[in-house]
Each structure stands twice: as C-alpha cells, then as structure tokens.
C-alpha cells in the first residue's frame, strides 16, 4: 500500500526565514504526491501536486515542493515564511482513487 | 464556483440521536469522499463514491454509519445512533479524474461539519 510519513509534529521558524516541512513516501510504481494546508476551523486547501516532470513543483501562496526520487522525499518549502503561513500541513499520496494522508505537521511562524 | 458545500457547519446532539451530515460536491466532479478528523486518529477516509456509486466503504467504523449519494450533486452521511466517540470534524471532498497526465484526482475539500455528541 502507498503511504507517506511526516517525521515532524511541529516546525518552528522565524518570519522571513526559509521554511521546510518534510515528507517521505513509500509507493509501488510512480508516485502522485500532494500537499494540503489546513487553517484553524477550515477545510483542507490544495497547495500543489507532483505527477511527473520537473522535480521542483510550484504551488499556491509562494510554496514549492521538491521531489527527490533517490531519497523518496517530497519536502514543502518556502523561501521566506510569513506569520500567516502558520497552519497544519498535510502530505498525501494517491493510492488508486484514494488519497492517503500523513499525520500532519504544525507550522508555527513567529514574528 | 462555490466549492464543496457542507451543512450544517456545527452540530451538537445527545447520545442516541440520529445525525445527518450533508454535502454538495463541486459541479462536474464525479468522485466524492467522506473523511473524519480527530486529534487521536488524524484524517481518516470513511467512504468514497464514483458516479454516485459507493466504491470503498472499508473506513466506515460501524454499522451505525451509513452514506448515500442519490444524485451527482448531493450526498449524506448518517450516524444512527450517535455516540460521544463519534465527536469529530467530518469533511466532504470531491474530485474530477482528468485525462492522461492530468490524471491526478486532486481532491477539493469542504469546510467541514464539527459534530459534538454529548
């Protein structure tokens, strides 16, 4: 079965610094990978996805993710964090027609 | 587009009562998913439909839970009877499969229903 792991429960970063939220995957075949963000009392919002092609995927709100096949990773990145980026972030992988989500990582950006 | 619509946004009920959650998917999407989110178990897929047909209900926790999709624009998730351990946020999501390289099944989520069973 396809799966993803988010090794960090929480990531803390200062505003203006670069941020990275980690995700590793385990799949058979080609991975279809996703990142979602959840703000308090809101539903999950789609940020970006990797299907094939360029290993650097650009998404919403200035986020990007780097697909690394040799390290089976799909880390979410942003060059300069904003306080408003503070939220819960989920990595997911497609398994058939379903998405399998990681446990989530809380991102806290402090001013 | 209005996005995925869920109602009610909040529901407080007493143990033993029937609860019905409602979802309207994005127009044109042919797959619909019901999830449950709790602190302890994270985000769990309960059931999903393709073209109004239930495909996988292996995540439905008990017979107390049932879901229907009578048409392409409406789905319900029912809990009867409800129990305090059913308290959670329930999300509905929809997707359109796309074609070829665009086939990624990106899911778009509704705002959720926060259910509290006393």
Which regions of chain A are unreliable across 5 or more consecutive residues at pLDDT < 50? none
- Which protein chains make the most extensive interface, counting residues with beta carbons within 8 Å of the other chain's beta carbons? A-B, 20 and 26 residues
Number of helices of chain B: 0
Structural class of chain B: mainly beta
Q: How big a fraction of the residues of chain B is strand?
A: over 45%
Radius of gyration of chain A, in angstroms, nearest whole number: 13 Å
From the helix content, strand content and strand pairing of chain A, which structural class follows? mainly beta
Described by strand count, sense and barrel closure, the largest sheet of chain B is:
7 strands, mixed
User: Averaging pLDDT over every residue of chain A, what do you get?
Assistant: 94
- What value does the Rg of chain B take, in angstroms? 14 Å
Q: Supply the number of helical segments of chain A.
A: 0
Listing every helix as H and every strand as E from the N terminus to the C terminus, the arrangement of chain A reads EEEEEEEEEEEE
Distance between the termini of chain B: 36 Å
Q: What oligomeric arrangement do these chains adopt?
A: heterodimer
Q: What sequence of helices (H) and strands (E) makes up the elements of chain B?
A: EEEEEEEEEEE
Calculate the terminal CA-CA distance of chain A, rounded to whole Å. Answer: 41 Å
Outline the low-pLDDT stretches of chain B.
none
Q: Mean pLDDT of chain B, rounded to whole units?
A: 92
How would the blueprint of this fold be written?
The complex is a heterodimer of chains A (111) and B (118).
Chain A: E1 3-5, E2 10-14, E3 19-21, E4 24-26, E5 33-38, E6 44-50, E7 56-58, E8 64-68, E9 73-78, E10 87-95, E11 98-101, E12 105-110
Chain B: E1 5-7, E2 10-13, E3 19-24, E4 31-38, E5 42-50, E6 53-56, E7 65-71, E8 74-79, E9 88-95, E10 108-109, E11 113-117
Parallel strand pairs in B: 2-11
Antiparallel strand pairs in B: 1-3, 3-8, 4-5, 4-9, 5-6, 7-8, 9-10, 9-11
């Amino acid at each position: 079965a396809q799966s993803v792991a988010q090794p960090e429960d929480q990531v803390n970063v200062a505003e203006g610094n670069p941020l990275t939220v980690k995700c590793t995957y385990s799949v058979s075949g080609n991975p279809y990978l996703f990142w979602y963000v959840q703000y308090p009392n809101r539903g999950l919002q789609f940020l970006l996805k990797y299907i094939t092609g360029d290993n650097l995927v650009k998404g919403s709100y200035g986020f990007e993710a780097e697909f690394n096949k040799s390290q089976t990773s799909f880390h979410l990145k942003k060059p300069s964090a904003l306080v408003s980026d503070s939220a819960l972030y989920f990595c997911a992988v497609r398994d058939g027609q379903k998405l399998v989500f990681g446990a989530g990582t809380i991102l806290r950006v402090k001013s | 587009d209005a996005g995925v619509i869920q109602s009610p946004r909040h529901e407080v009920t007493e143990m033993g009562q029937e609860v019905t959650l409602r979802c309207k998917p994005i127009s044109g999407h042919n797959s619909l998913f019901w999830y449950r989110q709790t602190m302890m178990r994270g985000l769990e897929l309960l059931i999903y439909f393709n073209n109004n047909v239930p495909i996988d209900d292996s995540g439905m926790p008990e017979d107390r839970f049932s879901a229907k999709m009578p048409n392409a624009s409406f789905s319900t998730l029912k809990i009867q009877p409800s129990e305090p351990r059913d308290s959670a946020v329930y999300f509905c999501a929809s997707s359109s499969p796309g074609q070829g390289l665009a086939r990624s099944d990106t899911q778009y989520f509704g705002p959720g229903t926060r259910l509290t069973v006393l």
